[in-house]
UniProtKB/TrEMBL annotation:
Gene3D superfamilies: 6.20.150.10, Gp5 N-terminal domain. The gene is V_5. Pfam families: Phage_base_V, Phage_spike. It comes from Escherichia coli. Residues 14-81 form the Gp5/Type VI secretion system Vgr protein OB-fold domain. This is Baseplate assembly protein V.
Length: 155
């Protein structure tokens, strides 16, 4: 097998570290060994009618695929946890999303519990109504409202 063919084969799938992020063009540069890629579009879980924005970070470890082994055709196909950026959850029964400022969104299927913590403010805005259908709604501090309409009765 020729040296050129071996080089191309070894470049088909590579791991690397994001060195730069351009959020305006949704592109990153990746360093993999001695290779520094050009600007590559990052991947997303959804980019159609449903759309997800989870931008990558400098220092994030990624997997790149190069069509035909040519790094000029590289695309990011996923991210990897690392010692520098470990997984935010430890259970197969939870979904956890963590943000750089310490905010954490967690759903634990064993407990049936959804939590959002670590943020400074939270807004829930609906054009028609918001329904809290539960036996108890608890506020641990000040509750402020512009208007209040209380109805007591049975179902």
């Amino acid at each position: 097998m020729s040296a050129e063919l071996m080089r191309l084969l070894s470049n088909i799938i590579r791991t690397g570290i994001i060195s730069e992020v351009d959020e305006e063009s949704w592109c990153v540069r990746v360093r993999s060994g001695e290779l520094e890629t050009g600007w590559l579009r990052w991947n997303t879980t959804r980019a159609g009618a449903f759309n997800v924005w989870l931008p990558p970070s400098p220092g994030e470890q990624v997997v790149i695929a190069c069509i035909g082994g040519n790094p000029e055709t590289a695309m990011i196909i996923g991210s990897l946890w690392s010692d520098a950026s470990p997984a935010p959850g430890k259970s197969l029964k939870e979904i956890v999303i963590s943000a750089p400022d310490g905010a954490v969104f967690r759903y634990d299927t064993d407990a049936g519990a959804l939590s959002a913590s670590g943020m400074k403010t939270a807004t829930l805005q609906a054009s028609v109504s918001v329904t809290l259908d539960t036996p108890v709604v608890e506020c641990t501090d000040l509750l402020r409202t512009a208007t209040l309409d209380v109805t007591k009765g049975e179902r």
